Amino acid sequence: MENMNLNELRDRAYKTACEHGFHDEELSNEHFICLVISELMEAVEADRQGQDGRANVVGFETCIKNAYQGIVRDDWFLKVYRADIKGSVEEELSDVTIRLLDLAGLRKIDLSELQGPLFDKLNITPEFISWEFQLKEMSFTERMFFLCSLLTSGESIEDVVRSSIVVTFLNANILRIDLLWHIEQKQRYNELRPVMHGKKY
After folding, report:
1. Mean pLDDT of all residues belonging to the chain
2. Is 144 left (phi over 0), alpha (psi -120 to 50) or beta?
3. Which of 161, 165, 169, 194 is most exposed, with minimal Cβ within 10 Å?
4. Are 144 and 43 in contact, with CB atoms under 8 Å apart?
């Protein structure tokens, strides 16, 4: 994905969540932020596995390219995704972003101001540049804690969502993760899952 339109990604995430029952009842911002934090903790658990906690992108792409007659059926995509990406740091950071995008969709938060170059994709304010330098000095767990502090800062939900999205992309850049690519794969995976993804909430 060369170009990114965060509002389009927001709308897709929100649409998928609605179709899977996640917005059948009115829930608080705190509920959704808690679920974002749960994804951050899953990212920590994946990182603790070392290389075993990283996605096998080459294996995934090889299997997808070798799909029968070039057609990637849904069942084949799900099988390959579960084998090579599921449970990885990359997937969990995608989940963090998708949940933030979904919340932005629910609360009608405009993300257009984030368009432009951040690693040629997002626009960084001086504050975000400062964060980038700070993040590079932190360990993985400290960076995830920093994201938790943003999420629970008490700022407006608009500021929380926008800042957390940018910092998640900064984290991905530090780890040399193509977060947009992983979001695309996880969006497709989510679209193929059952209602509520088989969970209570």
Report:
1. 90
2. alpha
3. 194
4. yes
Between CA 44 and CA 144 the distance in angstroms is 8
- 19-31 residue pLDDT tens: 999 999 999 999 9
- Distance separating alpha carbons of residues 29 and 114, to the nearest angstrom: 21
Domain boundaries, the chain: 6-198
**d(C-alpha 190, C-alpha 175), whole Å:** 24
Report the Cα 44 to chain-centroid distance in Å.
14
Q: Which has the closest alpha carbon to 97: 47, 151, 155, 25?
A: 151
Which of 177, 10, 20, 29 shows the shortest CA–CA distance to 93? 177
Measured from the Cβ of residue 138, the count of other Cβ atoms closer than 10 Å reads: 14
d(CA 113, CA 6): 9
As a whole number of angstroms, the distance between CA 107 and CA 102 comes to 9
> Is the pLDDT confidence value at 36 over 70?
yes
Per-residue pLDDT tens over the stretch 134-159? 899 999 999 999 999 999 999 999 99
DSSP H stretches of helix in 27-156: 29-47, 57-65, 74-84, 89-106, 126-136, 140-151
